[in-house]
Design brief:
- The protein is α/β, with parallel strands linked by helices.
- It folds into two domains: about 5-165, 3-Layer(aba) Sandwich (Rossmann fold), CATH 3.40.50.620; about 190-305, Elongation Factor Tu (Ef-tu), domain 3 (Beta Barrel).
- Helices cover about 30% and strands about 30% of the residues.
- It contains ten helices and 14 strands.
- Strand 2 (about 20), helix 1 (about 30-45) and strand 3 (about 50-55) form a beta-alpha-beta unit.
């Protein structure tokens, strides 16, 4: 199980060499996975440990909140995805203006003080660090040679002639291009959150749903979808619905699990969006809505079985 630390100083007690992958890792897409896999490979060669260093909140939330991007993954969701990658641990370091004001040299000093067994840093090709993002990959390599740690610079993973980025994944999801998003993520786009009490309209119509309070800020367009839903280690085939914004609480996510009976309230659920069944539409009566839900469920079953 991956260890989660809330501060770099928690690695002061590390006994083994540490290969540290550094980044925001929003979405944990295929480009991020290469950074992580490089850290895993380096750690294996040294009989050491591979860790990730990420930040909460997103640096732009502090430095430039007006242009901060919506998040593909909340921190708990990101931890789940990083743990699945096989890391020994992850540091979720608080991001603050104080941290951002450190000169690049001071940032490296802090890393080495907090992680005395630091053996390697792994970053993406566009990595910047320190005050006003003055530190770049060349400076990082210079520091590594001078201070005795290796630096691995990972080039971007290309898809459709451009490097995969969280920005491109966000746009694909919001445009409803689920196949494009999946190609860049290396898995279907997913939403993560707790199952909460809803209006129970689905139950009244004969199609009980789990109402998921999503932690993700990025959503596919409103509509009905063929989805898979994971609770713990169990994966269910399901039909999902993404609603419009409702009273400021964000879009509604409802999931009808096929052939399931039970109580999921309070459970964490990850919902994987496989395919659009139909865009959202208005119905003049509950009977018309019920008939359409039945067609949606049948269509979702067919899509998932195919």
């Amino acid at each position: 199980m991956m260890r989660i630390a809330n501060n770099l100083d928690e690695l002061k007690s590390a006994k083994n060499p540490v290969a540290l992958a550094v980044g925001v890792f929003d979405g944990v897409h295929r480009g991020h996975r290469v950074v992580i896999d490089t850290a895993l490979g380096d750690a294996k060669q040294r009989s050491g440990e591979a860790w990730a260093l990420t930040f909460d909140p997103h640096p732009q939330r502090i430095l430039n909140p007006q242009s901060a991007p919506p998040m593909l993954t909340s921190t708990p969701h990101k931890m789940l995805l990083l743990s699945q990658a096989g890391l020994h641990g992850c540091v979720v370091h608080p991001f603050s203006r104080e941290l951002a004001s450190l000169e690049p040299e001071a940032f490296i000093d802090k890393l080495l003080e907090s992680v005395p067994t630091l053996a390697a840093l792994v970053v993406g090709y566009n990595f910047n660090f320190g005050r006003r993002a003055r530190g770049d990959t060349k400076m990082l390599c210079d520091f590594g040679r001078a201070r005795g740690f290796d630096v691995h610079i990972v080039h971007g993973v290309q898809w459709n002639d451009n490097a995969i980025s969280s920005t491109r994944v966000r746009q694909a999801v919001m445009d409803g291009k689920l196949d494009d998003a999946a190609a860049m993520l290396g898995r279907p786009f997913s939403i993560y959150g707790k199952v909460v009490h809803g209006k129970e309209l689905g139950r009244q119509l004969g199609f009980p749903t789990a109402n998921v309070l999503p932690e993700n800020e990025v959503r596919p367009p409103p509509g009905s979808y063929a989805v898979r839903a994971r609770v713990g280690e169990i994966m269910f085939n399901a039909a999902g619905y993404v609603g419009h914004r409702d009273r400021g609480f964000g879009p509604e996510i409802e999931v009808h699990l096929f052939d399931f009976t039970g109580d999921l309230y309070g459970a964490d659920m990850e919902v994987f969006f496989e395919a659009l069944v139909r865009p959202d539409q208005h119905f003049d009566s509950l009977d018309a809505l019920k008939a359409q839900i039945a067609r949606d469920v049948a269509a979702a079953r067919n899509l998932l079985s195919a």
